[in-house]
Amino acid sequence: MWIHDAHAESDLPPADLWARYVDVSRWTEWDPSLRRAALAGDFVVGAHGRLEALHGPPTAFTLTHVAAPARFDSRAVLPHVRVPLVRLDFEHRLTPTTTGKTHIMHRVCICGPLGWLAARLLGPVLAADADRAVRTLATTTAPELSRA
User: Fold this and answer.
1) What DSSP string describes 38-81?
2) How far apart are alpha carbons 70 and 82 in whole angstroms?
3) How far is CA 134 from CA 40, 42, 54, 113, 116, in A?
4) How far is CA 49 from CA 7, 11, 52, 58, in A?
5) Who's near 80: CB < 8 A, 6+ residues apart?
6) What is the spatial distance between Cα 43 and Cα 48, in angstroms, rounded to a whole number?
7) What pLDDT digit, counting tens, does each position of 80-121 carry?
C-alpha cells in the first residue's frame, strides 16, 4: 500500500470549501490535473462519477464516505481492468484550526494486489497532483464560490 498526504491551510471556513467539493463539475477549478469531472446524482455515499485527467484514461469513481462539511472519500478502480488489482482511494478532509483557518488534507492511497507496481508508476504523479490541488483549493476566495 502506498499513501501520500497533501496539506494546506485556507482562510475560508469548511462550509465554503465544502461547496467546492460538492460542485463536482467545477473540480477542474481547484484540481489542475483534471480536464473534466462529473457526478451522476447527488453528492452522497454510493454516487458514481467520472474523471478525465490530463494524463491517463477516463476513470470512474464512487463516493464511499460523505460527512458534510468535514470529509468525503472516493474510490476509483483503474480502467480496463475487470479484476480490481489496483484501487485508488482518495480522502478529503476539512478541519477548523484554533487560529480560525481550515486545514485541508487530501490523502491518496494506492492499494490492491498490484498496488506496489501502480505506486511506482503513478505515485509521483498522483502526489504532485494532490499537492497542487490542495494549494489551489486553499487559495480559493469567497467571491469565486458564487461565480456561475
Assistant:
1) EEESSSSTT-EEEEEESSS--EEEEEEEEETTTEEEEEEE-TT-
2) 33
3) 24, 23, 17, 29, 25
4) 24, 29, 10, 10
5) 57
6) 9
7) 555 578 889 999 999 999 999 999 999 999 999 988 988 998
